[in-house]
Amino acid sequence: MDGLLPVRLDIRVERFHALTEKASYATVGVHAITFAMQVRDLETGNPIGEARLVKADLDAFGRQQALRAEAVVWPENTHHKPPCRGGSSRIV
Question: Structurally, how many domains does the chain consist of?
Answer without folding.
Answer: 1
